[in-house]
């Protein structure tokens, strides 16, 4: 938004200069002024959105809403891993750049705290049942209850293991899809930038209209906005995958 505003202001000043020299019409100046105003409004809206996001984050972590934050982790191209570098023809994603799915599943099943808690529950139920077998016969209520508790704990663990694998697989697929979309939007930004550069050159040389230039600028803004959203979506998907696959858990 800031880049687009800068371009719009430069164009507006250029229109004023050319209007004064008699080479541009009043309509061109008015259109450039409108674009500059719209770009400025977009920047102001983005800043308000950022302020709201900071307040929401402060609320979540229990700080006063007006606490200034200095974020040390940022969404950058480097954080997207090899997403862009692994993009093949037409934005396809080369799977070798993604985290290994089977290794992630194995890590999740071994280290996820929720599964470990259920394993502890199974072990406790097994110990309780072993004790019941020493003192009661199978027709005694305490024996049957301990047996049912053990079976229930084992079933809960089996279901949780299956669900954990499902979560890792779906998160991996979501991350791969987000990486592919990120590569596509980056390509779209490159094309839009080149389109805007050409449109600006043509306009400076009197070979197209101010509307053509405005359309190219709008196309660039939309492409960059979509790329930022795609980068955000990738980072969210990557973080979700890390949670489900127990990354960093020993």
Brief description of this entry?
This protein has 250 residues and is mainly α. It has 6 helices and no strands.
| Integer average pLDDT | 84
Pick out the low-confidence regions: 81-96
Number of extended strands: 0
User: Oligomeric state of the chains?
Assistant: single chain
Indicate the radius of gyration in whole angstroms.
Answer: 29 Å
Alpha-beta content class? mainly alpha
Strand percentage lies at under 5%
Helix content: over 70%
Describe the structure.
By secondary structure, the protein is mainly alpha-helical. Helix content is 75%, strand content 0%. 22% of the residues are buried.
How is this fold's topology laid out?
Layout: H1 2-20, H2 26-61, H3 101-111, H4 113-135, H5 141-204, H6 210-244
Key features?
250 residues; 6 helices; mainly alpha
